[in-house]
């Protein structure tokens, strides 16, 4: 008999409600959940293709061991656990706990039981060498909010239901469905702003919306220059007397230092760097200040530039200085079911330490991902064992060749994944993980970032196939084998959701309580105004730090980068990333239906004008070279791109991934070979890798 079980998607932030069709304990279909109280029947085709991932014949179904001959052979879980624990114990005893580390990838953010399991494992082991996808994604946001609001968990989101004006920088709402701003069907939400007479502006090097779109107008910007646009917006507002001085005086500090910084970047100067004319910049500033309420959102296009932390700082400042922070229709801190502001409270100064790679810091515990190869290949005290959980650093971090060489040096590499991915090729042990339909969960990832907060619980909708196991179980077994404490000690019912239950209690909820609700979902009140400055902000004096002393060096660096950009050759091409609906970072590449005729590889997108200027035609094969590497790739014309900007879709490059046959048959190229890696290739304030605005040359082959 077919049953329909409400659950939710755990691929990206909106956590769209899905209905799983289950027959004889097998998942046979997926549909958007029209009865979901918040996501209301929205789901994208990646979410729905979760069924194909679930049933993919290439899925890892059993632990695999790599033999001396380099082939993978099936092993028992008991064997795998004993061998992995034995090797970890040997390395720890001989070289100390820091010889063992982890890389935790993006899908773990949507897999609630991974973080506590990893924390338990790492703290009992005593290692501090942790890496993750956060430093390729968003660690500038953690660092920025730490410095300005005293907490890495405060990210005021646009009050999209009430705002009259929304300024979006470096995001592609239609394709990517937002990050650090959890809303389902973002395009509909943006359209609604326009419908009620408001405005939406999108700042991007690519016209991410078709011309004449009902969503918003795109202002084209040169990549990696947004800091100067944001500074010029604030400068314009200050010189035109449009700053809410009262608000700044009541709740801010070091306000004068902020304006001192932005005064160096009047609209005329910013125009030369950003490619946006000065009058448009002033117009952008005025419309933001004049709107009865205005909100702002920035995403990975800015995160991945060289100054992502400073950009986030000025984004917060634009909101604060115009009186829109904590105002209805402005940016609001959404507490959701649990106010986590305090949990992210930290004094960033204390996270810095001296390393063989210079003075660096940890951000939310993590080292810079771009140092992973250096740490593995260090002469002194190298990392010798790495456990990768739902990550694929070979393809998602910069410098593929460097990463491959380094992974070969490891004495132990354990990869816990759905697939034998590109990174898994180097694994000594591959452990098969359950997917989102095979494990219970709640949508914790959206906490603090949902414009309409809701919390949903789901059971596993089907039992795990074959020998797939949840990550927490694999780690707990290894803990047991190492003689450590583990959640399995509790017997039949491991306390996996104990901490979550504790958090839920803050809103009078519990997992049991959620289970009894329709869709197992509680809809929570929309974010309130009026408590931010008294209750949520976490700086010692409860003031917004408008110019954190920690930024001093970076601010001097901003001027140096500005001069460098001013001196740059007009024709210098810059590389950016272009996500599309047929991929999800590196992991939807094995789904045949996402590899239709036009999606079998990832071309270099180029504005036809730039191509013609180089005598290049569509389909020509070119060599793209940066200071860090070179690739050969076909050209596709894209007149939505600003001239001078080229784009690649990331996550491709599976020619050496035999474990994913569909992906290998349509390998594409890994544009991350063009990105820098190693010391100097990340923002020292945040560890965020430099991944956009990379200077490249393109020549015919
Ligand atoms: N050039 C360029 N590079 C980029 C980016 C870019 O915009 N441009 N984006 C960056 C960003 S934002 C991110 S977040 C990173 C992502 O980087 P990573 O996190 O390193 O990689 P992902 O491609 O997300 O894939 C993670 C792996 O998780 C596996 N997986 C999926 N679900 C599960 C699960 O439930 N359990 C387990 N154990 N495994 C699972 C998948 O099979 C896949 O192999 O890439 C970054 N890289
Ligand atoms: N289909 C699909 N959806 C996804 C993902 C995916 O891989 N595929 N990945 C998920 C993940 S992990 C994340 S983090 C989110 C990311 O969500 P978004 O941040 O919205 O990611 P993108 O769609 O890459 O949009 C970034 C935009 O920044 C622009 N850009 C590049 N450089 C600059 C710059 O210097 N300045 C400005 N102003 N803009 C710039 C690019 O043209 C691009 O349109 O998406 C999530 N959703
Ligand atoms: S938008 Fe994200 S959460 Fe929603 S269905 Fe698509 S992949 Fe899943
Ligand atoms: Mo991401």
Descriptive notes:
With about 700 residues, this protein is an alpha/beta fold. It folds into three domains: about 65-135 and about 345-525, Rossmann fold (3-Layer(aba) Sandwich), CATH 3.40.50; about 155-330 and about 540-550, Dimethylsulfoxide Reductase, domain 2 (3-Layer(aba) Sandwich); about 570-700, Barwin-like endoglucanases, CATH 2.40.40.20. It contains 24 helices and 29 strands. The strands form eight sheets. A seven-stranded mixed beta sheet has the order 5-4-19-18-17-6-7, covered by helices on one side. The protein has a six-stranded mixed β-barrel with strand order 24-28-25-27-26-29. A four-stranded parallel beta sheet has the order 11-10-9-13, sandwiched between helices. A hairpin with a 2-residue loop joins β15 and β16 (about 360). α4 (about 115-125) runs parallel beside α18 and α8 runs antiparallel to α11 (about 265-275). The longest helix has 19 residues, at about 75-95. It starts with a strand and ends with a strand. The model has no long low-confidence stretch (mean pLDDT about 95). The structure holds ligand MGD (2 copies), iron/sulfur cluster and molybdenum atom. Molybdenum atom binds near residues 106 and 179. One ligand MGD binds near residues 169, 204 and 579.
Topology:
Elements (H helix, E strand, L loop, with lengths): L1 E7 L8 E7 L2 E7 L12 H4 L1 H6 L8 E3 L5 E3 L2 H19 L4 E5 L9 H12 L4 E3 L6 H11 L7 E2 L6 E5 L3 H4 L9 H10 L3 E6 L12 E4 L5 H14 L5 H7 E2 L1 H8 L4 H8 L3 H13 L3 E5 L1 H4 L4 H14 L9 E2 L19 E4 L2 E4 L10 H5 L8 E5 L3 H4 L3 H10 L2 E6 L11 E4 L8 E2 L11 E5 L12 H11 L16 H8 L5 H5 L5 E3 L8 H5 L7 E2 L6 H16 L5 E5 L26 E3 L1 H6 L7 E5 L4 E8 L7 E4 L12 H5 L28 E7 L1
Parallel strand pairs: 6-7, 6-17, 9-10, 9-13, 10-11, 12-23, 17-18, 18-19, 24-28, 25-27
Antiparallel strand pairs: 1-2, 2-3, 4-5, 4-19, 8-14, 15-16, 20-21, 21-22, 24-29, 25-28, 26-27, 26-29
Helix pairs in contact: 3-18, 4-18, 5-14, 8-11, 8-12, 8-14, 11-12
The protein binds ligand MGD (2 copies), iron/sulfur cluster and molybdenum atom.
């Amino acid at each position: 008999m077919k049953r329909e079980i409400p659950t939710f998607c755990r691929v990206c932030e909106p956590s769209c409600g899905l209905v799983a069709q289950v027959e004889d304990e097998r998942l046979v279909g997926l549909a958007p959940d029209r009865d979901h109280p918040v996501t209301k029947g929205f789901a994208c085709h990646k979410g729905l293709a979760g069924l194909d991932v679930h049933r993919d014949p290439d899925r890892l179904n059993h632990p695999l061991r790599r033999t001396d001959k380099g082939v993978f052979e099936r092993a028992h879980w008991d064997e795998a656990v004993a061998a992995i624990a034995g090797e970890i114990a040997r390395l720890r005893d001989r070289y100390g706990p820091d010889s063992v580390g982890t890389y935790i990838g993006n899908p773990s953010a949507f897999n609630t039981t991974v973080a506590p399991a990893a924390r338990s494992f790492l703290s009992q082991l005593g290692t501090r060498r942790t890496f993750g996808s956060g430093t390729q994604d968003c660690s500038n946001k953690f660092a920025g909010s730490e410095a300005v609001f005293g907490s890495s968990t405060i990210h005021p989101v646009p009050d999209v239901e009430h705002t009259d004006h929304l300024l979006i920088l470096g995001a592609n709402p239609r394709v990517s469905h937002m990050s650090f701003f959890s809303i389902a069907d973002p395009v509909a939400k943006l359209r609604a702003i326009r419908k009620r007479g408001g405005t939406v502006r999108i700042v991007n090097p690519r016209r991410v919306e078709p011309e004449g779109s009902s969503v918003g107008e795109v202002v084209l910007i040169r990549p990696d220059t947004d800091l100067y646009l944001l500074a010029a917006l604030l400068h314009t507002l200050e010189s035109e007397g449009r700053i809410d001085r009262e608000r700044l005086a009541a709740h801010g500090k070091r306000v004068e230092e902020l304006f001192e910084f932005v005064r160096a970047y009047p609209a005329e100067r910013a125009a030369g760097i950003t490619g946006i004319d000065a009058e448009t910049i002033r117009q952008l500033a005025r419309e933001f200040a004049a709107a009865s309420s205005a909100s702002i959102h920035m995403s990975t296009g800015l995160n991945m530039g060289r100054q992502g932390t400073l950009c986030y700082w000025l984004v917060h400042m634009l909101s604060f200085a115009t009186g829109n922070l904590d105002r209805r229709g402005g940016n609001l801190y959404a507490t959701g079911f649990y106010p986590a502001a305090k949990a992210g409270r930290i004094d960033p100064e204390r996270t810095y330490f001296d390393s063989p790679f210079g003075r660096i810091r940890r951000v939310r515990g993590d080292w810079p991902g771009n140092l992973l190869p250096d740490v593995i290949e260090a002469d002194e005290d190298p990392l010798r064992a790495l456990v990768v959980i739902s990550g694929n650093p070979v393809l998602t971090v910069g410098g593929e060749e460097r990463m491959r060489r380094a992974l070969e040096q490891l004495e132990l590499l354990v990869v816990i994944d759905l697939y034998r991915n590109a990174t898994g090729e180097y694994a000594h042990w591959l452990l098969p993980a359950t997917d989102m339909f095979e494990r219970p969960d709640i949508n914790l990832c959206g906490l603090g970032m949902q414009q309409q907060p809701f919390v949903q619980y789901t059971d596993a909708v089907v039992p795990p196939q074959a020998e797939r196991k949840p990550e927490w179980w694999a780690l707990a077994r290894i803990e047991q084998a190492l003689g450590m404490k583990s959640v399995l000690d509790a017997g039949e019912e491991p306390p996996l959701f104990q901490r979550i239950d504790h958090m839920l209690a803050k809103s009078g909820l519990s997992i049991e309580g959620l289970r009894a609700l329709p869709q197992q979902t509680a809809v929570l009140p929309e974010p309130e105004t009026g408590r931010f400055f008294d209750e949520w902000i976490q700086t010692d004096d409860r003031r917004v730090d408008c110019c954190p002393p920690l930024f001093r060096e970076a601010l001097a660096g901003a001027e140096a980068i500005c001069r460098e950009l001013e001196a740059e050759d007009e024709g210098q091409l810059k590389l950016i990333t272009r996500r599309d609906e047929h991929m999800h970072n590196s992991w939807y590449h094995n789904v045949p239906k996402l590899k239709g005729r036009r999606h079998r590889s990832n071309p270099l997108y180029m504005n036809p004008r730039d191509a013609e200027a180089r005598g290049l035609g569509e389909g020509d094969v070119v060599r793209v070279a940066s200071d860090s590497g070179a690739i050969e790739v076909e050209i596709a014309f894209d007149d939505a791109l600003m001239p001078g900007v080229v784009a690649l879709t990331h996550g491709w490059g599976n020619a050496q991934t035999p474990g994913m046959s569909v992906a290998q048959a349509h390998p594409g190229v890994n544009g991350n070979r063009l990105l820098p890696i190693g010391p100097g290739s990340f923002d020292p304030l945040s560890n965020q890798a430099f991944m956009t605005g990379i200077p490249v040359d393109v020549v015919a082959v």
